[in-house]
Please model this.
Amino acid sequence: MSSELSAIIESIIFTADSPLSLDRLCDLLTEFERSVIKTTLAELVDQHQGRGGGFELVEVAGGWQFRTPPSLQSYITRHIKSRAAKFSQSALETLAIIAYRQPVTRAEVEHLRGVDCGGVLKSLLEKNLVRILGKKDIPGRPLIYGTSKQFLEIFGLKDLKSLPTLKEIKALDEQPLYERQEELQLEPGKPVPVESDLPFD
Model:
């Protein structure tokens, strides 16, 4: 790995306001081959993960960005007051429908939620989490919506394929089944008492 190119890429990504794609890095670094930039990026990822430091290089929202590991979140919030975006239940439901069903119209979202979503959609557009993709080719030409790059960045997703599947979401609600284990004998040769033999007041 070229130490010069490594330093250049690190400095550009570090000072960027949002994740930088490989294409954008190649546009900025025309004096280097695309394959060399791609290889250097992969080596930087391994280098930062291997050192186990306070930040790492991760692919998010179609680009590369330095982020702190999730395992350190509790320590970071001791130092700073997190201004994490807070979402209402209705906003999260609407955002989830758009993320999984996009491209989708307002009428389709409202049909699935069963309530008016105009205010929530407006709020999500203002927060740049949802964007207008165009108009649907049906009578009335309603707007169609999809998620934005900002959505991917906030939720730490590489792309839409990184969204958890419905099967994975359902698995979170399942109660784990615990098998009964035999108790260890305290004295060799002495039988293990069962619950019906134990004295209760």
